[in-house]
Amino acid sequence: MESSSSSSAAGLGSVDPQLQHFIEVETQKQRFQQLVHQMTELCWEKCMDKPGPKLDSRAEACFVNCVECFIDTSQFILNRLEQTQKSKPVFSESLSD
User: Fold this and answer.
1) H or E element in which residue 14 lies
2) Residues 62 and 46: beta-carbon distance below 8 Å
3) In which domain, by residue range, is 56 found?
4) Which one of 27, 39, 44, 78 is separated from 96 by 20 to 30 angstroms, measured CA to CA?
């Protein structure tokens, strides 16, 4: 089973470029949705004591800070991964298409 999944991944180079682009875009959308879900769950647990009809100012400030920290951290990690991939040309070439 493992060889069939790796052969299909290796075969992506021969796939129609439009289809490959579509797959990349959809994968990016999925990753973004996962990040939003993680951020929502993390910040909700951290900032929401007792759900009510309105957010109090403390909870609102907590959500803003939590989201900003999550975004900053995610951006830092992505930048670090990008730097790492640039130092490995074989791997980065397959991702840049």
Assistant:
1) none
2) yes
3) 18-86
4) 39
